[in-house]
Amino acid sequence: MSADAIAERLQVLHERIAAAAARAGRRPDEITLVGVSKRKPASDVVAAVRAGLTHVGENYVQEALAKVSEVNAALAAGGTPRPCWHFIGRLQRNKARHVAIHFDRIETLDRPALGDELDRRAAAAGRTLEALVQVDVSGEPQKGGVAPSELPALLEKSERWQALRVVGLMAIPAASEDPEQTRPAFARLRELRDALAATSGAGRLRELSMGMSADFDVAIEEGATIIRVGTAVFGPREPFQGGRNE
Length: 246
Description:
The protein is an alpha/beta fold. It has helices at 3-23, 42-50, 61-77, 96-102, 112-124, 151-158, 183-197, 216-221, 231-234, and strands spanning 32-36, 55-58, 84-87, 105-109, 129-134, 164-170, 207-209, 226-229. The radius of gyration is 17 Å and the shape is globular. The two termini are 19 Å apart.
């Protein structure tokens, strides 16, 4: 896709974000747009960042490793700051090292053992890594995510980590052609966050990552602070059997 087309898509997205924020009595600057670039070339990411995108998400470690380096190098050569890199795919412990080194934030933390490994790897690299806990709000364990009933225990464990800082919650609702069908899941995640914020030590949960290309307007109305948008930024992709993280 051309750089001009990507810039136009971003402009339309920002207008939609502003409209959704206005309906909810919120400010547009309360919402972070993460452009999901899985299976898209580094050149598209560079064009998007030069057009104003400041956060980029990737789903697959192996694809991301070369792309992150290529994008960062191209931007540095042109004097453009690199984006904040989000890892938004399911992560195996044996790949935690790569995420701890190359990403700034992981949005799919869903078990203590993974947190332990990320904390250890980030500390060894001399970095601080931010994390969002993925919550299974739709009862679809195949997508990953901690059960709501197990969330308090995971957050309690997270207080012991030194290099991994939990800053919010993330959810992937059941897929639906009607965005209104995802509203209850978004509301559920917000309610969980608000309930936890009232407990000791959980006030750090400032972020709610929810909403994708098809339903981010509804997510913003329900309190999303992060939306993960891929096709609306970079255009359609080839079908892939790999989950619905954007």
